[in-house]
Amino acid sequence: MRAYEAVRRLLNQAPLTGPDELPALVAGVASLVDARDIIIFLADYAQVSLVPLSPPGRPVEAAAIDSTLAGRAFTTLEAQRGPGRLWMPLLDGCERLGVVQFDSDAELDENAAHEVTACVAQLLKSRRAYGDTVERLRRREPMQVAAEIVWGLLPPLTFAASDVVVTAVLEPCYDVGGDVFDYALNGDVLSVGLFDTCGHGIKASALASLAVGAYRNARRTGLDLAATAVSVDRWFSSEHRGLFATAVLIELDRRDGTLRMINAGHPGAQLVRDGKAIKELPGPTALPLGLGYFSDKPPRVHEEMLHPGDRVLVYTDGVTDAVNRAGERFSLERLLDLVQRALNDELPTPETMRRLVQAVLTHHGERLQDDATAILLEWRPARDPWARRTSGSG
């Protein structure tokens, strides 16, 4: 009941609270859950550190994600205990925001801490747009304007429903410009698009903005997959003649696992089953978007029937082509080995992708010469779809 009172107080006071006042508001309900203090930690853009969103005048050190109990709560999505402390993963759905730290001399009730943490997540998502406090905090270095444009376009890095999960990573997070992605779940169809525009900087981010806008417009108009690709292609050739984007456009029917895909000049997506990459999906099936005037053939749609638990890995060439000082490419083989090991260790899907991008950065020496973006799409139906397939029933 005391947790209920804490949540009630937070919800009642939050509508009149600015983003920079949230830390004090949250700390003010600590006693209601037998805690001395409650501190919010948010993951930085690079997902390397958890930085404290603490009230003014109360300095708190950041926590490294890879070497602290707070970081372990973030990576495993499980509560962690230390002397006089409890760390709870801070989630909005399946999107990892950070952790909430509860300080107490008593044995804290995890259920009460969970209720408060869930409320904090909702308050952060609803209030952060009204100020720059959270954005400034998450930035460990200046963000370039091109990256500012791209991050403003993107949906959350992770989305999950009962039977599908989409997780993405994007680097270098402070200087991206050409890579962008989008997704949407409409009824039984999950749509995913990944675009790698030519060029760098502001021009590339302008192309990325057009790609996402045209993709969303076509999707929301109700165009099918092939017509969507044609629409984006025509917008590119109309507004930026001679410029283009490679892309992968996907539609997944979550009822029976039917995957429909157009590969527009992009590296082939990888199909991962039972923790192993079993094949590369066909590609390209169309010219890069913006170059359709070179051919009168419509985009070809590839269809694949997924098995329950299958994952599809889509990536840009900035991942595999990252080169270290010795001139060695990160390579597709290294990419697949890393993903397979992470999946076999049963890590949460967002953590698999975080470790992937950290490995790419380490290989390259922390600074990438090209954007590196990857998306992992997972289909995990609660019921066996095979009966529907074999019977032909809808």
From TrEMBL:
**Top-level taxon in the UniProt lineage:** Bacteria
InterPro entries reported for this sequence: Bact_Sigma-Reg, PPM-type-like_dom_sf, PPM-type_phosphatase-like_dom
Q: Provide a Gene Ontology MF annotation, just one.
A: phosphatase activity
Identify the residues that the record assigns to the PPM-type phosphatase domain, covering every copy.
129-379
Does Aminoacyl-tRNA synthetase appear among the keywords?
Answer: no
Keywords, alphabetical: Hydrolase
Q: Does the keyword Hydrolase apply?
A: yes
This protein is called Stage II sporulation protein E (SpoIIE)
